[in-house]
Amino acid sequence: MSSVTSEHRRKAEQLLALHRGPLLLLPNAWDALSAKIFEEAGFRAVATTSAGVAWALGFADGENVSWHEMLGIVERVVDAVKVPVTADIEGGFSSTTPDLIYRIEELIGVGACGINLEDGLDHGARLRSVDDAAERIDAVRRVATKLGLPLVINARTDLHLRAGNDPTVLEETVARCRAYLAAGADCVYPIGLSDLSLIERLVSQVPAPINIIGRRGAPSIAELQAAGVARVSTAVTPALFMAGALEDAMKKLIQSGSFDHFTSTFDYARVQKLFAH
Asked: Could you tell me the pTM of the whole model?
């Protein structure tokens, strides 16, 4: 097992403290450059996006990229920025609890301060049982504690990926969130839940940090903060935006034959400066 440095521990404590307010707006990076841009923009922490990382490496989302390639990107992001980094590891890239423990040891070894761990299987088509998901969260907490790191565990439930804003699902969402928190999670993430009234109901019934996805059509930051939400993740939104912007620019190049539309606040020298050590 890798030893945890005092600086690593300080960053993990800093990430946990950011969940106590004001609302933590968390951008999701897919490589070192996107992470550096987020840090430069003033974000207090950076997350990774499993989908964005997979696409950047030439794979579809859903644990199709190899674990060590995913781990390599997390390590590069950690090395690129000074702020705490939390990693989206989907379902843990492991079918057994011992395998998951080994993954967490490796992840802590490259400097991650937190994780997203989801209860979905087959890309959200099925869900783990509450007991199974909670057992895995407990295992993660135990190994992080053994290593001396207050790893920030964001326990994601995929209920609303299938059910959307169906209010009849909320009771099960509350039950899962409470079970995951009892097992050692610091924050819960009902991905896909976007109805403000349902979010308010969830916050009132789960007295712990709640993470909501930030994307087009979601409630505003001000509305979510007023509702008591602790954390908003941009998830794959920035990666999708960049893909669309790049496609638009390249189509304009073909159509116009001109390079004049390639305007940016960044030039070569500024990007180079981001990585100057």
From this structure: 0.96
